[in-house]
Structures are given as structure tokens and as C-alpha cells.
Amino acid sequence: MTAPNYLRLERRDSPAPPAPPAVSDFVIETDGLDLCYGRKKALDRLSLRIPRGRIHAIVGANGAGKSSLFRILLGVQSPNTGRATILGHDCTALTERERARIGFVNEEHSLPSWLRVDELVAMQRRLYPNWDERRFRRIVDHFHVLPEQRIAGLSRGERAGVNLAMALAQQPELLILDEPTLGLDVVAKRAFLEVVLDSVDDGGTTIIYCSHQMDEIERLADNLIILERGRLVHMSPPDEFCERVSAWVAEFAFTRPEPGLLPGVLQVQQIDGLTHYLVLDQDERFSALLQARGARRHHRGEVNLDRAVNAFLSRNHATPAPDAPLP
Amino acid sequence: MSKTVPLFLSVSPGDPRSIVRQITDGIRLSIASGQLPVGAQLPSVRGLALQLTVNPKTVAKAYGELANDGWLDARQGLGLFVAAPRQRLSSSELERRLSLALEAFSAEVIGLDYPLEHILDRIRADLAPLLDKRSA
Asked: Does residue B4 lie within any of the structural domains?
């Protein structure tokens, strides 16, 4: 397998990126953000600080507050209480100059269909003082899009590529990607992830990546941020989160214990006479507890990010499985 | 002039293991089967990250674990190389890992209800070719 062409060119040809101005060590800082829609709390005293640099993934169930957070960060919505800054500026008073330092791509990938790619770019270029035409060309080329192509004739994946190229050609200090790979085929998705991974090394851009696709997040993210019901519930490198969750398989001599008798249980499943547990923040002492509850044999395993996050987010509506008699 | 041996690894979204574990397992298997001979140079962290489309930190972590366990040798400024077998693990550590692996294996297999002889035959058939290559 060879590296994509533009990835190689990038490092040799492009001049060193300008050092980001030392405004703040955090690209995003929120303090006690509250946002209500009627009686529903979208954000609940959300305090979050995202450091400059690298890829930060934001994860949460639908309605966890991701979209509300983005609307506040981009100045589209004002919070009921609390404050938020982006690149050191108050989100409620962003000027055009500050907005030009922030890129945003969501899953719509809508572009004016009557234009050609180069015509669209000619319009965009004028709006952004730091526009990097060569970077734009390299990225669209990575998606096999030609400048003279009509946008109406592009596939969804190709439009995603053009959107990403436009966002990165602005050389933004911060790029927010909101479910950007939704509905892309595997080839376009791969190309998209390659460009995202590469752009962090390349231009000093901080990326905030919001997705429900845990396999993408496991590949990309340096930092995992989990929101739940409008609050920050976890922030660490993804593998540290995986280490919080462990899988246990136990075989009980008679009946398995009520879930409430074991600490940290996120999920219980009964499979082929064995009881499978996913547990949070338990060490080897869990082993002793299983034995004390009558486990004849048991074994501990690791979990990947997908399982860990899924079990974690479903923990509050985990109904205790019906206690079926063991075969 | 590059002594780097290409690694045929893949990272699969459906795999229950973490990406770090998929990489370390894949490399250990390549070493154990002789596909990566002693002294072979591993791809750079950046190179393997590009090949697999994963964060370079993930590759660095996998390489770090393999080096810690004695599978790989870091030579200052030159890169990572497959280590000679004897450097790998202390005998008590080897024994501990064998126990862990057996425990995991037993927990999986116990529910399958195969007679012991059948299980042993299968282990022999699967492991013998790998062990042969290593001693060759």
C-alpha cells in the first residue's frame, strides 16, 4: 500500500505553517453554560476546556447537547446563562475576522449546484485572507475531483471532499467537523479520514470531530469528550476511556447474582450459559467479588472503543435483564 | 537500501479488540510465524499510521508495548527492529502470560462442549506450523 500522493507532497513543498498566536492554550472554553428549549434542558452547566492542537472527538447520544454547543460556539445561539469563548473571543460577539479563523463542515455537503468547482473557489478565495490554493488542489485531487467539474455532477463523497478542501484551504486555526462522514461510501470515508489525520500534523489546525462512528473516532482522536444530557461526563485520550471499561465472563455454579450486588455494572448478558458483564472502573477486586458470589470460573477481557462508549452511554437505561434460570 | 519489511496488517472496525491490540497482535503473529525475521526493520510510526489510517500516537503506543515486551528493539536514531527471541520475557512473565491466555481460551471453549482430545488436536494442528517456523 502506498501513501496517497498529496500526503507526500505536502510535507516537502509547503512552507512552515505560521505559529499560532499565543492567545490562549484553549481553543474553546465554556463556563457554566445553560441552555433550555422550553422546559427541556439542552445544556446543563456545561464547563468544557478544549486545548489547542490535535484532534478532539465529541461523542454523545442524540440530544446530548452537541448541536446546541456548536450553535453557541458559532454565535448562532446565545446561552441562557454562562459564557463561552472560541479562540479566546466571546462567542456572542464574533467579528468576520474571527469567523474566518474557524472552519465548519457538517454532514449536509450542500454546495451551489450550478457552479463549477473552480468558479466556486474563485468566490471563496476572496473571502479568506489566508487562502492556500495549492492545499485546496491537493485535497480535491485526493478525492479525484477536477477543478472544471460541475458541482451538480459530483457524488456525495466528492462534495464532502470539496467542502473539506474549502475549509482547510482557509488555513483555519480551528476546524469543527459535525458528522462529516455521514452517508459517505467506504472509499470517500477513507479519503476523508486521511486528509483529517494529515491536516493536524501539517498546519497547526485544531480539529473538533463530532461523530457517532466509534471506529472513526478510535482511528482519529487524541482526545475523547463525552457529553450526556448537556453535561461533560468524560474527557481523556480514547484508550484511557477503554481502560475504564472491562469485560468479564463468568460461569456461576447455581444462579447468577442480582446485578445490584456487583459494582460498576454497565451491561449484563446471558450467552450460552455464561454471564457476560461490561463494568466501569473495576480492577482485579471484581474477580474476588465474582468468586464470592459463586462464580466457578471467570475471565477478564478488554473492550474496544465502540463497546466501551455504547455500554457507558446506555448505562442509565440499563434495565436489569430478566433473571432466567441457568441451563 | 531500506531493510524495512512491509507489514501486512489491517485494522478492522468490526474487531472487538482495540486498535493498539490489533496492531500488537498482528506484529507478534508476523514475528512468531517468521514473516518478520529477527533484525527486520519495522515501518516508521508515521508510515504505519498512514498505511492504516490511524492516529500516529496509536502506532507509537503499540510499538512501545512491543518494545517493552522485548519483541522489538529500539536502536537510537535508526528505528525499530525485530528483537532476538531470548531477550523477550522473563520466565515468570512467560508463565503468567501463558496462564492468562489459557484462562481466556478455557472460558471461551468450555461452553462449546467438545471432548478434550478434539480440542488438543486442534491446538496441535494450529500451533505446530507456527512453532516449527520459529525454531527453523
From this structure: no
Shortest CA gap B128–chain A (Å): 26
* Distances from the Cα of B18 to the Cα of A57, A265, B53, B54, B66, angstroms: 17, 21, 14, 12, 15
Question: Does one domain contain both B79 and B45?
Answer: yes
User: Rounded to two decimals, what is the model's pTM?
Assistant: 0.78
The reply to whether B95 and B75 lie within a common domain is: no
A26-37/A40-51 β-pairing = antiparallel
- What is the SS3 assignment for B80? strand
Domain match, B78 and B48 both = yes
Asked whether residue B40 falls in the same domain as residue B61, the answer is: yes
What is the domain range of residue B101? 89-135
**Whether residue A323 has pLDDT greater than 60:** no
Check: complex ipTM more than 0.90: no
| Separation CA A277–CA A188 (nearest Å) | 36
The DSSP secondary structure of A154-187, one letter per residue, reads: --HHHHHHHHHHHHHHT--SEEEEESTTTT--HH
- Out of B68, B86, B104, pick the residue that ends a domain: B86
Report yes or no: A220 and A197 within 8 Å, Cβ to Cβ. Answer: yes
From A162's Cα to the closest Cα of chain B, the distance in A is: 20
Do residues B61 and B74 share a domain? Answer: yes
Separation CA B52–CA B12 (nearest Å): 10
pLDDT at A59 over 90: yes
Bridge partners (DSSP) listed for residue A232: A227
Domains of chain A: 5-236 (3.40.50.300), 240-317 (3.30.70)
Q: How many domains does chain B have?
A: 2
Q: What mean pLDDT is reported for chain A? A: 87
Interface residues from chain A to B (CB-CB < 8 Å)? 1, 3, 7, 55, 190, 193-194, 197, 201, 215, 218-222, 237, 239, 242, 249, 251, 272-274, 297-299, 301-307
User: Rounded distance, CA A290 to CA B42, Å?
Assistant: 42
Determine which of B97, B110, B112 to mutate to test the interface with A (most A C-beta atoms within 10 Å).
B110
Strands A223-228 and A55-59: parallel
What are the tens digits of pLDDT across the range A252-301?
887 778 877 889 999 998 888 889 999 999 988 899 999 888 888 888 88
